[in-house]
């Protein structure tokens, strides 16, 4: 329940505060006194968008503070990020003339969107503008599903529908790319075949270059190798011959100078090295071949590899890497074809599931619609429209209009008088009738709801007399479960409330101010009398007002 409301610098309200009670709270006052501004304040504290022009002239900001008692503990679980302290929360909203406004929940800033979500859970506001929502067939469908406890089934329908749309978009995307996919597959097939046909090996190009170099320079290499071998072995001036002579000479000299014998070992080592070098040169010479045919084949292979390098990478490793990438891409493209087939089957299955769930939902809507018709007619009868007939019409929509809420269009029809054809609510011209229909619709099932703050902003337009009495009685019944806050011009409604607040305006030093007074018994009798007869209050009107209040409130 809304326990306390304080409004500062909003329109003609400079500083106004009110403590509210459980049950039925009524606000009355002359036209232009500022009643609607109080309703604006309540709307703003629950997340309605603000306009800087609402700030009182000459002030920097408007500020609204509300203290709310939460009776439903489950709200804490629904909004776990809020800084809950106990079952009482303090909401404060600042609306500056310029800059960004601020909203606080128990002193901590919260986003407007989150506050609005909380507001939807704890309060409902019904005013003349709510007729617009009442006439919307989308709203009527939502209302029926809520009334019939069909929202869980509708959520299932919605999940299947959204999954179905997601798969259809994926399938459409794959089909759109089918031509590009086929062209890409052809290209990848060509790339893979060309590289695989080459049968490349890492390091092969370097080895081929060495072989090619040998074959091109075979004659020169043979000649140079022969010369080197001659130096090692052939003739009296070969290394081998000279080392033998040197070894013999040193042997003779060492007889006279023992130090020379130390060099004989080194001479032997040099001889061994010369022999090893000779064998290596001999083997190398024997391996040299002059083979034009082999050179031609090597040239062709090198040319093939160079062509592949220009196309697929600067090295054999890069070419082989591009081969693996091409294979993976080809595999993915081929799997997209399989995915297309799988998507087609999955879409068929989901369409069947969607149809089955939607049919089930549609059948339940028909059943719940008949129950709702009777409930609304009972309420309308109580509100002075006992001859009215109310209808809930369920029709199938065309395939292109189906969606997450199923396959139905729901529209409320009414026949206000016997013999009249039922018409959609949107074609009802009378504001008084619409006000009562709205109250009936809002009243049905309201007792089953979690306790809420219900605000009725001048829904008494176009009614009076016995009908107004019925409206007041219905509001009082709603107040047994919910806190009801109502603005009215009708004494028949105001006299049912347990708590009565009068709003009036005064002019001081050339400025207009809205004031609020909680009425005690005598002042309340006078206010009801004013509402009955206008400004000319007499003893008779006061007596009549007191009798009405005693009768409505059960006072002797």
Any descriptors?
556 residues, alpha/beta, Rossmann fold, 6-stranded mixed beta sheet, elongated
Structure description:
The chain is of the alpha/beta class and 556 residues long. Among the domains are: 1-128 and 450-519, Rossmann fold (3-Layer(aba) Sandwich); 181-332, no CATH class. The chain has 18 helices and 15 strands. Strands 2-1-4-5-6-7 form a six-stranded antiparallel sheet, covered by helices on one side. Strands 8-12-13-3-14-15 form a six-stranded mixed sheet.
Summarize the SSE layout with pairings.
Blueprint: E1 2-10, E2 13-19, E3 24-28, H1 35-45, E4 61-69, H2 74-78, E5 88-96, E6 102-105, E7 108-109, H3 112-122, E8 123-127, H4 130-134, H5 137-147, H6 151-176, H7 178-198, H8 204-216, H9 218-232, H10 239-253, H11 261-287, H12 292-312, H13 316-382, E9 389-396, E10 408-415, E11 423-424, H14 431-443, E12 453-457, H15 465-478, E13 483-487, H16 491-494, E14 499-508, E15 511-518, H17 521-533, H18 539-553
Parallel strand pairs: 3-13, 3-14, 8-12, 12-13
Antiparallel strand pairs: 1-2, 1-4, 4-5, 5-6, 6-7, 9-10, 10-11, 14-15
């Amino acid at each position: 329940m809304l326990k306390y409301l304080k409004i500062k610098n909003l329109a003609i309200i400079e500083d106004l505060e009110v403590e509210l009670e459980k049950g039925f709270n009524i606000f009355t006052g002359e036209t232009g006194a500022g009643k609607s501004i109080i309703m604006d304040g309540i709307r703003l504290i629950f997340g309605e968008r603000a306009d800087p022009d609402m700030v009182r002239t000459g002030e920097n900001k408007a500020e609204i503070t509300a203290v709310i008692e939460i009776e439903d503990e489950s709200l804490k679980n629904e909004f776990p990020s809020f800084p809950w302290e106990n079952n009482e929360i303090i909401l404060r909203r600042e609306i500056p003339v310029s800059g960004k406004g601020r909203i606080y929940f128990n002193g901590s800033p919260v986003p407007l969107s989150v506050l609005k979500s909380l507001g939807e859970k704890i309060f409902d506001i019904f005013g003349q503008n709510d007729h617009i929502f009442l006439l919307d067939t989308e709203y009527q469908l939502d209302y029926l599903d809520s009334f019939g406890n069909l929202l869980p089934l509708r959520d299932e329908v919605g999940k299947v529908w959204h999954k179905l749309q997601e798969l259809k978009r994926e399938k459409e995307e794959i089909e759109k790319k089918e031509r590009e996919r086929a062209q890409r597959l052809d290209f990848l097939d060509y790339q893979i075949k060309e590289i695989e046909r080459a049968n490349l090996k890492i390091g092969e190009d370097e080895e081929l270059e060495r072989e090619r170099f040998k074959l091109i320079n075979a004659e020169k290499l043979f000649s140079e190798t022969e010369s080197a071998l001659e130096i090692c072995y052939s003739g009296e001036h070969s290394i081998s011959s000279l080392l033998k002579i040197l070894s013999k000479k040193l042997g003779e000299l060492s007889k006279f100078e023992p130090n020379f014998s130390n060099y004989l070992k080194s001479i032997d080592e040099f001889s061994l090295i010369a022999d090893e070098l000779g064998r290596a040169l001999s083997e190398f010479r024997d391996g040299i071949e002059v083979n034009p045919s082999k050179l031609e084949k090597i040239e062709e292979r090198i040319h093939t590899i160079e062509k592949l390098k220009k196309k697929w990478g600067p090295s054999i490793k890069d070419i082989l890497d591009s081969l693996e990438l091409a294979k993976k891409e080809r595999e993915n493209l081929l799997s997209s074809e399989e995915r297309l087939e799988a998507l087609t089957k999955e879409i068929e299955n989901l369409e069947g599931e969607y149809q089955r769930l939607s049919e089930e939902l549609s059948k339940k809507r028909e059943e719940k619609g008949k129950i709702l018709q009777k409930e609304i007619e009972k309420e309308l009868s109580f509100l002075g429209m006992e001859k009215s007939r109310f209808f809930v019409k369920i029709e199938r929509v065309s395939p292109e209009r189906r969606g997450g809420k199923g396959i139905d269009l729901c529209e409320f029809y009414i026949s206000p008088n016997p013999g009249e054809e039922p018409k959609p609510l949107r074609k009802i011209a009378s504001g008084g009738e619409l006000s009562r229909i709205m109250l009936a619709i809002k009243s049905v099932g309201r007792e089953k709801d979690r306790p809420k703050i219900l605000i009725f902003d001048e829904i008494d337009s176009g009614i009076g007399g016995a009908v107004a009495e019925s409206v007041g009685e219905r509001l009082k019944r709603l107040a047994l479960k919910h806190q009801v806050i109502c603005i009215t011009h009708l004494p028949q409604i105001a006299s049912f409330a347990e708590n009565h607040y009068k709003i009036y305006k005064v002019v001081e030093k050339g400025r207009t101010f809205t004031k609020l007074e909680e009425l005690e018994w005598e002042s309340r009798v006078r206010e009801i009398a004013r509402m009955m007869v206008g400004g000319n209050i007499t003893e008779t009107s006061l007596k009549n007002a007191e009798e009405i209040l005693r009768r409505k409130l059960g006072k002797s």
